[in-house]
Specification:
By secondary structure, the chain is an alpha/beta fold. Helices cover 53% and strands 14% of the residues. The N and C termini lie far apart (87 Å). About 4% of the residues have low confidence. It catalyses: ATP + protein L-histidine = ADP + protein N-phospho-L-histidine. This is histidine kinase. It holds the Pfam family HTH_18.
């Protein structure tokens, strides 16, 4: 009985130890934040951002101490953090010098310190995060100089004495102002970051010297106070005011800019979330920069509304996150309660099981049979463990071999790719074209390509083994796809007089397939067919649509076949049939089967008078996961030459055009080298509608076509590429078109001159075709992003902002003309084109390129916006509004209005 009680106590102690261990595992990273922001808005913004970031990191225990602008209180808070041995301390100093000693104390205690917003004296801190206050001062100075039209007299209102932001902002501001002799800082007022410190001294200065053009205050509160003081003297419209902070709050910098009180304010980011991320990196001893600077911008009337909208969206998202975090905390409390109950039940279950085990053990322990069985059982367990250990050793050995070959394959790819790149350049070199060397160079390129494909096949095998392949299926006409692949084998079939046929009753049959993977399946099967089929033989592909929602694709040849007793092994990796005397890696058919299985299909082999492989695929896409389906069809841009690998013949090179001309972007090539033009046309015509010019009519052709992108040489027959690019970029009709310079001139001066002429990219010859293709794709993608901006901001595009002055000036001018004529029923697209000084076709292409809709739809949208305003005013009935805006009938107007706003004009008028 004593042994039993002892056994139960041991189990209880073990359970308590397990619970204690779990509690220790739940320890969090303790982060202390000493807050010293001087205003409620700053404090709210900083605390909100750092709390949100902490809520997303369950391993963090964040404690915030607010010193309420009291230096002694802040020192006391940091001392408490040190005594509590927190893991990291974040400090936002009220003043630099008083906090230096306590920060040094923390560093000596082994606790890293992140200083944010304001620096301390000395270097005794781990890292600093904040805005570059010197740069803020410089930005203010540059803004005043660039916008000044008056006396150039400036008053500076600084922050509190001893504050590092005040000192640094003054330093940067003075650097810029003192560099320009026309500008002068006539007075400097020592403020304390609050409004009341400004009014009296500023009033006295303005009474003595009212000829002041700008007042720069170190924060928006003091700038507002300066405006209020100037207003009492009637000078608020004569003087312009610049502040710092740009808070999105009542009487914050953004609101003051929008209301016209401030001419501009400089964003001063709090960086709460960045501070916590940096603190965690310090805790984890990751490599970080000692000085981490937050970015800033000037906010004026041009971008205040955009910035305000963005900040409002961020605030809304933060509220959603806080709400979600609250719900998560409630669930965590429920989970903790349920977890404790489960632990308690588990504890009692352990006791019950212990009693049961003890009872059974006591009953049968006296039996010799039991002991013998235990010894036999132990022997079996030992032997099983040995077998498992041997299996693990074998698995590790196999994994090591595969990792070695995979790693070696990756290492091979780099030098092989370099060899192929240089060989391609040699093939294009005029010096060896037409010589005996060209055949030898092509042979090098062919075998390099062959080696690269074999390595890629090994990497595919490795990916299959690790289940790393992801399907990217698209709706594909299987007959057309099969024809595309067969085109690469027709040259070999003709050379060897092989009857190579494709049969399919439904040529419009569509299947969801991954074109890249299925291409490899086709090539493996056809490569084997050509390898083992003798001259004058027959190879056929037949596509059969079945009643059971499946499609069978038969690959049949009249080759040597495979022995019956080996049919079951043909899809095993590294298998080679006994009658196969050809060179083979042995993994092609294995990969083919795995790729078909990824499509939820099957592949089988029949061998009678040759070989017949049958692939069975399901119709539709219900058998696929949503992530395995893509909308855009991916064309076969590169086809592996498995025939060439095994038969040492030249493939029949034909590029398939799988994209209709209507879906292609247009490309204008301005080049006087006919061979190069033909080469680029051959390589790019699958993806682009290609036009060309020798340079003599380049500008006229560009304005006629309005292409999506232009490739231009420098040395041309008439004007050089720099002049052509400059003229096209200055012309409103063509300014939006991206231009790539493609030239042999690679010196620094030529590149600089090209960029100065307005081109978007500068590439030198000899060039990489893949880089050229990617450059074209990237420029078109960036144009799509700009189009997205214009589409979403079409009715409030400013004529001068950072997104492209030419396009924005065009849109602004066009919108103004439309709005002035919106009530003119006779106003047409031709009238608009005439007022803009362009042809109707050029206007259509320009608007389509910039905003993605045709000009008629755009004019209609403007009319409907005007209709909405008239409906709100209740001055006209619906019929009057319809006819006044040029709509043919009230019914047509109602239909168009409902399509745009989702409700009828009558409902809209009632709701407003």
């Amino acid at each position: 009985m004593y042994q039993f009680v002892k056994y139960i106590l041991m189990l209880i102690l073990a359970s308590l130890s397990l619970i204690s261990c779990k509690q220790k595992q739940g320890d969090k990273i303790r982060v202390g934040f000493s807050q010293a922001m001087t205003t409620d808005d700053w404090r709210k913004q900083m605390n909100s951002s750092i709390k949100i970031e902490a809520s997303l990191r369950p391993e963090v225990d964040l404690t915030i101490k607010d010193a309420n602008n009291n230096v002694d209180k802040q020192i006391e808070d940091i001392e408490r953090f040190i005594s509590n041995r927190v893991d990291v301390i974040i400090v936002s100093p009220i003043q630099s010098k008083p906090l230096t000693a306590v920060v040094e104390k923390s560093i000596k205690a082994g606790i890293p310190v992140l200083v944010v917003d304001r620096k301390i004296e000395g270097e005794s801190y781990t890292a600093y995060l904040g805005a570059d206050n010197i740069e803020i001062g410089r930005i203010a100075g540059r803004y005043i100089i660039s916008h000044s039209k008056g006396s150039g007299n400036v008053i500076e209102i600084t922050g509190a004495s001893g504050s590092s932001p005040a000192y640094e902002r003054t330093l940067g501001f003075n650097q810029i102002i003192n560099e320009n002799k026309r500008f002068k800082i006539v007075n400097t007022i020592q403020g304390d970051w609050e409004k009341e410190s400004v009014k009296a001294p500023l009033k006295a200065i303005l009474l003595q010297n009212p000829n002041v053009e700008y007042i720069f205050a170190h924060n928006d509160r003091m700038a507002l106070s300066a405006w209020e003081t100037a207003k009492t003297l009637g000078l608020e419209k004569k003087i312009k005011f610049i502040g710092v902070d740009a808070l999105n709050s009542v009487n914050g910098g953004i609101e003051l800019v929008k209301s016209g009180v401030l001419d501009g304010t400089i964003l001063y980011p709090t960086g709460g979330n960045e501070a916590l991320k940096l603190a965690l990196k310090m805790y984890n001893k990751e490599s970080i920069s000692r000085n981490n600077i937050l970015n800033t911008i000037v906010i004026d009337k041009n971008n205040a509304e955009i910035i305000e909208n963005q900040m409002d969206k961020v605030d809304q998202q933060q509220l959603v996150i806080e709400s979600q975090q609250g719900a998560i905390k409630v669930q965590e409390r429920e989970y903790a309660s349920q977890n404790n109950l489960v632990r308690l039940l588990s504890f009692f279950l352990v006791i019950i099981l212990s009693l049961t085990i003890y009872s059974i053990y006591s009953t049968i322990s006296i039996s010799r049979k039991k002991k013998q069985l235990e010894r036999i059982n132990q022997t079996v367990i030992d032997q099983n463990n040995e077998i498992q250990e041997m299996a693990q050793i074998a698995a590790k050995s196999n994994e090591a071999k595969l990792n070695f070959f995979t790693g070696l394959s990756h290492e091979f790819k780099t030098p092989i790719t370099l060899i192929m790149s240089y060989v391609e350049s040699l093939i294009e070199n005029d010096k060896i074209k037409g010589t005996a060397l060209i055949d030898e160079v092509k042979l090098i390129h062919k075998n390099s390509n062959r080696l690269l494909r074999l390595i890629n096949q090994l990497l595919d095998f490795r990916k299959i083994e690790e289940q790393k392949f992801t399907l990217r299926t698209s709706n594909t006409k299987i007959y057309d796809f099969t024809n595309e692949v067969m085109a690469n084998f027709k040259g070999e079939a003709a050379r060897r007089n092989i009857d190579f046929q494709l049969s399919c009753k439904n040529k419009n049959l569509e299947l969801f397939i991954d074109r890249g993977l299925m291409d490899k399946v086709y090539f493996n099967l056809l490569s084997n067919a050509f390898k083992f089929t003798p001259d004058n033989g027959k190879i056929s592909i037949s596509i059969v649509e079945n009643q059971d929602n499946t499609v069978k694709i038969h690959f049949k040849d009249s080759g040597i076949g495979i022995p019956d007793d080996e049919l079951s092994n043909v899809f095993d990796p590294f298998f080679r049939a006994s009658n196969n005397n050809k060179n083979s890696s042995g993994i092609g058919l294995h990969l083919s089967k795995e790729f078909v299985l990824l499509h939820q299909g099957t592949i089988e082999l029949k061998s009678k008078q040759g070989s017949e492989f049958v692939i069975t695929l399901l119709k539709g896409n219900s058998h696929l996961q949503p992530g395995e389906i893509i909308q855009k069809v991916e064309s076969l841009t590169s086809i592996p030459n498995l025939i060439t690998d095994n038969l040492n013949i030249e493939p029949d090179l034909k590029e398939s055009n799988t994209i209709s001309d209507a879906e292609k972007h247009s490309l204008l090539i301005i080049e006087d080298n006919v061979d190069l033009v033909n080469f680029l046309k051959a390589k790019l015509s699958n993806e682009y509608v290609v036009y060309n010019s020798d340079g003599s009519d380049a500008i006229e052709k560009a304005l006629e076509i309005i292409p999506d992108v232009i490739i231009c040489d420098i040395n041309l027959v008439d004007k050089d590429g720099y002049e052509i690019s400059k003229e096209l970029k200055k012309d409103l009709r063509s300014s939006h078109i991206p231009i790539i310079i493609l030239t042999a001139q690679s010196n620094k001066e030529s590149v600089l001159k090209g960029l100065q002429s307005g081109v978007d990219q500068y590439l030198t010859k000899p060039f990489s075709l893949s880089i050229l293709k990617q450059s074209l794709s990237s420029l078109l993608f960036n144009r799509e992003k700009l189009r997205y901006y214009y589409t979403n901001n079409i009715y409030r595009v400013e004529p001068e902002s950072k997104f492209g002055n030419q396009e924005q000036s065009f849109i602004t001018k066009m919108n103004d003309i439309i709005k002035k004529n919106v009530e003119n029923p006779k106003f047409s697209v031709e009238d608009l084109a005439d007022k803009l000084g362009v042809s109707r076709v050029q206007l259509y292409r320009k608007v389509k390129a910039i905003i993605g809709i045709n000009i008629s739809d755009h004019i209609n949208n403007v009319k409907l916006e005007k209709a909405a305003e008239l409906l709100k005013s209740n001055e006209m009935n619906i019929s009057e509004i319809a006819y006044s805006l040029g709509f043919s009938s009230p019914n047509y107007f109602s239909t168009a209005f409902k399509n745009k706003f989702g409700i009828s004009p009558k409902e809209y008028k009632t709701s407003s």
